[in-house]
Amino acid sequence: MDESTADAVDAIAAQWRRERPDLDLAAMAVFGRLGRLLNVATARIESVFTAHGLQRGEFDVLAALRRSGAPFELNPSVLADTLMLSRAGMTGRIDRLEAAGLVRRIADRVDRRAVRVALTEEGRELVDRVVVAHTENETAMLSVLDRDDQVALDRIARKLLGEWESGPDPAPGDGGTRSSR
Questions:
Q1: Domain check: are 99 and 16 in the same one?
Q2: Which tens digits make up the pLDDT trace of 144-169?
Q3: Domain count, the chain
Q4: In terms of C-beta distances under 8 Å and separation of at least 24 residues, what long-range contacts does 123-132 make, across chains too?
């Protein structure tokens, strides 16, 4: 590391190296940077939604409906499952979007007792505008990396997610090795 690339994580790691030279701090530095990246990226991503009068969760609902294809409607339970939300949390989002005229509740064609959530024309037009701004923003955020680095980052992130989401958690204090639970 040279002085021109040093960051706050390097300063923290240097303090730990001074106090605990016995620790391997490589993973701590990676996770420190990942955490900082997540915070910065989240703020930049959410600024796009805010500029369009949406919260991220509201965009997620509109986007799920839009990408479901015509007629752009889903059962509220399917929406909740897709977005990993409680039914109550989904109801609140749908209520806000319905009040804004972006979605409407309609009777299910098969089971008239059930409802579906459908994008209104205004909702479809809004999500189509926002998704363009959103993807342009994310592309700009990654533009500091060349294409090969972007592909490598995606490959590494996919590998970590695949491992972490499917395997058992390492036991605390086992040095990062997998537990045999």
A1: no
A2: 999 999 999 999 999 999 999 887 77
A3: 2
A4: 123/62, 123/65, 123/97, 124/66, 124/72, 126/52, 126/54, 126/62, 126/102, 127/59, 127/62, 127/63, 127/65, 127/66, 128/66, 129/52, 130/48, 130/49, 130/52, 130/54, 130/59, 130/62, 131/63, 131/66
